[in-house]
Every structure is written in structure tokens, then in C-alpha cells.
Amino acid sequence: MKESNQVRKLLIASAVIVLGIPAIAGATPSISQIEDDAVRVSYADLNLANEAGLVTLYERLQDASDAVCGPRSLSEVRSPRDLAFNKQCYRDALSKAVAKFNSAMLDKIHAG
After folding, report:
1. Per-residue pLDDT of the chain in tens (112 residues, 90 and over written 9)
2. Dihedrals phi, psi of 45, to nearest 5 degrees
3. What phi, psi does 73 have (nearest 5°)?
4. Which residues are CB-contacts of 108 (< 8 A; sequence separation ≥ 6)?
């Protein structure tokens, strides 16, 4: 049961990070509540044409990936297997979210 939940979580995390512009203009930019292993990331307040805006977006995508995939510290998980799963989930979710923007500058930030 636990393994099927992890597989489900990984599959959902692959398409997980839902990127959206807030429906209401002037909405406070933040990561909304987690729903079905997905996190909506607001970026309407950011200027994605400059590096500062993309760095902020990347930080929000990291936070969303953390929220979806769980802790990446051995002290916070039950087993090394869970730790490895969470780390892979995080990498996959973040990479797929970054790829959705098709931005060379965001790709560069992601690559480090």
C-alpha cells in the first residue's frame, strides 16, 4: 500500500507543479494550499524577463516541489528508501516545472 502511494505520488509529481496566473488581479503572490499532490505557483507578480524575477520564480518552484515530495533529510523520513524516493521526486518535479517555461535563463539557474 505504501509503495503504491509512493508511485502515485511520483507520477503526480511528474506533472505536479501547476503553474498559474492568479484569477484575481492584484492577488497576493504565494504558494496556495496543496491539493492532490499539486501546488499552484503564482508568478503573475514577477517580471520573467529579468534574472531577479526568474530567481524568485525558481525559489517558488523549489518550495512547491518540497511541499509535494516531502522531506529530503534522513532525520525527517522513516527510511533511506523514503529519502531516496523524496529526493528523486523533488528533482523530477522541479525539472519538469522549469522545463514548462522554456526559458534558457531559468534553465541556467536550475543547472546551478
Report:
1. 555 556 556 545 544 455 543 333 333 334 444 445 678 889 999 999 999 999 999 999 999 998 888 888 888 888 899 889 889 999 999 999 999 999 999 999 999 8
2. -85, -5
3. -130, 130
4. none
Q: How many domains does the chain have?
A: 1
- Contact indicator for 16, 36 with CB cutoff of 8 Å: no
Range of the structural domain that residue 29 is part of: 2-111
Quick one: which of 99, 106, 17 has its CA closest to 57?
Answer: 106
SS3 78: coil
| Structure confidence at residue 7 (pLDDT) | 56
CA angle (76 as vertex; 88, 6 as ends), nearest 5: 40
Is residue 86 within 8 A of residue 72, CB to CB? The reply is yes
